Amino acid sequence: MTDREALAALTAQIVTCRRCPRLVEWRERVAREKVARFRDETYWGRPVPGFGDPDARILLVGLAPAAHGGNRTGRVFTGDASGDFLFRALHAEGLADRPVSRSIDDGLTLFDTYVAAAVRCAPPANKPTPTERNNCAPFLVRELGLLTEVRVLVALGAFGWDAAVLTLASLGHEPRPRPRFGHGAEFVIGPYTLLGTYHPSQQNTFTGRLTQSMFDAVLRRAKGLAFD
């Protein structure tokens, strides 16, 4: 069983992190200035921790919180179009209790699934620097180390893939040769299986590069492997 107290302590450390000056300035400025459609809301404006089932067998690894999604709501993939796509798929596979999540207090419950990001602060243009990525990397390493039931990692995009590979290497499971990202890519790395999918961003979903059926198939595979 996952050490819930240790996971809660890690969450507390994540949300108070100020290691990256550029990200701190950006996330806080976005939270002050807002956008018109959310002008009456109070933004989170801090690093966004992972969330989900502490005894999850599946870990989803995204890129970073969206400026007006997770940076606003305080929960990754919550309150933006990427989250709408993701939670619809999780619900269809029985991994979430509802297909839509718009706020951190809406009661969303994930089953056998935990969601985290490689970088915990919203970055300008959704592009963290290598230094910012490296500053955040230990959080994901510690998170996976605490999530003792995880058997499958699903990388949402190439950035999440690279973060997952580096995390596994930090835990002593370094793959050789280094696995290449691709939608539907699958590699066994130590006691884990790593799956890749295009990120459910609007750039991918609106253009048809990633369809709901494509994404559903990856989640279905993850679920099958997790309970094999």
Describe this protein with a few key phrases.
228 residues; alpha/beta; Uracil-DNA Glycosylase, subunit E; six-stranded mixed beta sheet; 8 helices; 39% helix
Question: How would you sum up this structure, described in words?
Answer:
There is one protein chain. With 228 residues, this protein is of the alpha/beta class. The protein has one domain (4-226): 3-Layer(aba) Sandwich (Uracil-DNA Glycosylase, subunit E). Helix content is 39%, strand content 12%. A 6-stranded mixed beta sheet has the order 1-3-2-4-6-5, sandwiched between helices. A hairpin with a 2-residue loop joins strand 5 and strand 6. Helix 1 packs antiparallel against helix 5 (130-146), helix 4 crosses helix 8 and helix 5 (130-146) packs across helix 6. The radius of gyration is 16 Å and the shape is globular. The mean pLDDT is 97.
